[in-house]
Design brief:
It contains one helix and 37 strands. By secondary structure, it is mainly beta. Strands 2, 3, 4, 5 and 6 form a five-stranded antiparallel sheet that branches. The longest helix is centred in the first third of the chain and has 19 residues.
Length: 482
């Protein structure tokens, strides 16, 4: 029993360290113009393996253009700014998504005399970029796009006024953005639908937006497709309260769909959360995530298995700061709010993405003067990918078990044991030796562990996972079948 209690204390200390290991803020831009992240909850940051990509808009060139910046070492070092647009019109509200080495970006701009949705991608991790592709073509305003990717399927939603009221529209590409289908109108609002957010898992596409149809108040509406965007189900009203609900953000992992938004049912705007375990058929109760007299704004969510990460900004400290909150059990319970920024200036519009054990956050910040700059922060161990199963006995030798199930689709579990405490890495590779995911990359205590791996965005084939702990190294093969 003494051994068990000692190990329990160590585990609690280890859990605390995981959440506390946020590293210092990194300034990504440095110019005299204003640099902004998007104000419609579209993701301005996307991570996959070692790659992290950030997009934003700034007016260093005399008008607002879309810019891109990337890191190839999980956010430790960053490349130069890349200007993605080049015309005299205003380009605004970019959204970014990744599949392997392909980077997809959408935004809206006015080069054609009215606001249209544009798309651009890079097939080599952001080194080279293709031409701009105009996705909309009508005399109305098409604005605030959101982007999601699953393999070669690229999904875009936005809202526009071609039918008098603001409506939500959808468009897809089935060949990685090379060609695009027709616009699909998802709403028939009688008072306006705004700022959609989109997420996809395999062939199930989830879309949420703010809708004014009830006239008395603004609600969050939801719609899904189960066949990759070809056909769409009925609209569902999410909160349905007497308050106004704004700025929804949706994320999905397998059949678990998660929505967050801001809601003033309590007299001021707070962050609320809702969860579905059956891919959007049924939804649980609303959960209030914040509780203070300040206004909480622009939440963003990222999910990895049972780990949920949200960021937002609010004014509880006298000026706008970025806050973070995490759930480790699929949204059933939530940890305390964590303040990520601490300076006298305003910080706003955060966006979050997760890859392996890393949590990445980007936002805009006024700390450097009268114009905002883009800032970045990461927690290298904030997305715990393993469940620790330490028993009464210490392991006597290193061990790496065969994953189960194997073959798998899309998730599998890997067990390992270490007889001595030390630094442990567990990584996933393709058949060419390219690193795809880091499942463990931290100090571990003596014990037995298991790690869940979800092959999001990977195609069928053979993959390898390698455990390294001190001088011990072992690699095993696993098979993904879609």
């Amino acid at each position: 029993m003494k051994t068990f209690l000692t190990l329990s204390v160590l585990l609690m200390l280890n859990s605390f360290n995981l959440i506390a290991q946020w590293q210092p803020d990194v300034r990504l831009t440095n110019n005299s113009a204003g640099s902004y992240t998007s104000n419609n909850n579209a993701w301005n940051i996307a991570a996959n393996g070692n790659a992290v990509h950030v997009v934003w808009m700034d007016d260093r060139d005399g008008n607002y253009e879309i810019y891109h910046k990337s890191s190839t070492d999980e956010g430790l070092n960053w490349g130069t700014d890349t200007r993605l647009t080049n015309n005299s019109a205003t380009s605004w509200a970019p959204s970014v998504a990744l599949f392997d080495q392909t980077v997809h970006v959408v935004w809206y701009e006015e080069r054609d005399g009215n606001q249209e949705i544009y798309f651009k991608n890079s097939f080599d991790g952001g080194t080279n970029w293709g031409a701009d592709i105009r996705l909309t073509n009508n005399s109305a305003s098409s604005i605030y796009p959101s982007l999601a990717v699953s393999d070669q399927f690229v999904h875009v939603v936005w809202y526009d006024t071609r039918n008098f009221y603001n409506e939500i529209f959808y468009k897809q590409s089935t060949d990685g953005g090379m060609s695009w289908g027709e616009d699909t109108q998802l709403t028939s609002a009688t008072a306006g639908a705004y700022v959609p957010s989109i997420a996809v898992s395999d062939s199930v596409v989830h879309v949420v937006w703010r809708d004014d149809t009830s006239l008395s108040n603004q609600e969050i509406y939801y719609k899904r497709s189960t066949d990759g965007g070809t056909n769409w189900g009925e609209i569902q009203i999410m909160p349905n309260t007497s308050g106004d609900s704004h700025n929804p953000s949706v994320a999905v992992s397998d059949s678990n769909a998660h929505i967050i938004w801001r809601d003033d049912r309590d007299g001021n705007f707070e962050i609320y959360y809702k969860h579905s375990t059956d891919a959007g058929i049924n939804w649980g109760e609303d959960t209030r995530l914040t509780n203070d007299p300040a206004v909480s704004e622009n939440p963003s969510i990222s999910v990895s298995g049972h780990f949920l990460h949200i960021v937002w900004y609010e004014t509880r400290d006298g000026n706008t700061e970025i806050y973070y909150k995490r759930s480790t059990d699929g949204g059933l319970s939530w940890e305390e709010d964590l303040r990520l920024t601490n300076n006298f200036a305003g910080s706003g519009r955060p966006s979050v993405s997760v890859s392996g054990s890393k949590v990445h956050v980007v936002w805009y910040d006024y700390r450097d003067g009268s114009e905002p700059e883009i800032y970045y922060k990461r927690n290298p161990t904030g997305n715990v990918t393993g469940i620790e199963n330490i028993g009464l006995d210490f392991p006597e030798e290193f061990m790496l078990e065969q994953n189960y199930p194997n073959p798998f689709n899309p998730s599998t579990t890997i067990q390992y044991a270490i007889p001595d405490g030390g630094f442990v890495t567990l990584k996933v590779y393709d058949v060419l030796g390219n690193e795809l995911a880091t499942l463990v990359n931290e100090e571990k205590y003596i014990g037995s562990y298991e790690v869940d791996f979800t092959a999001a965005g990977l195609s069928s084939g053979i993959y390898f996972y390698k455990l390294q702990a001190g001088s011990f190294v072992e690699t095993k093969k696993m098979i993904l079948i879609r």
